[in-house]
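FORM 7B: Structural annotation worksheet

SECTION A. Query
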Amino acid sequence: MTLDHDDLRRHVRQVVAATGRTSAMDAAVGATLAAVGAAAGADGHDSLALGQGADELFGGYAKVARLDSRVAADSTRAAVRETVRSLPDGLARDVPVLRAAGVEPVLPYLDDRVVRAALRLPARLLVRDDERKVALRRVAADRLPADLAAAPKKAAQYGSYVSRELDRLARQAGFKRRQDDHVRRYVESLC
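SECTION B. Predicted structure
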């Protein structure tokens, strides 16, 4: 799938219409999901499986592994619980965006059984040395090719370059990085 800047602007408008949100993160994540959802719908699919919850539940974030200043927690387990609390906010964006794109989100990592099991995992099965999502990668290694199970993960908005292109479009429209929230200001100018 390829997006041009017109597609990206259209998907950003859809995100704002579906959620009322205009932050840079909401625009980038939402536009990525809107594009994928639209493509899935165009291919005849009525649902789309998402990975929401994997990083939060299984220790996938660097801030959890390092216990850096982005988390208030003082242990891996506490940091995981802290990031789990961020899920409702993200889902309040993701679910309406995908439904507006014509597909129903499926969230296997947020199945009650998966959540219960993940929240009982010891810290050593979440993060160990430089490896994150230890338990999840072990399960994946039993079911997927090794290179895929061990592949580094990149957030969709970064791996797709949607975030980068939103920044570029904002600057081309005259919104300077030195201004606070230049991408948000650009997103608001689109609507």
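SECTION C. Observations
Residues 5-190 form a domain with the Rossmann fold fold (CATH 3.40.50.620). The radius of gyration is 18 Å.

SECTION D. Sign-off
Analyst initials: ____
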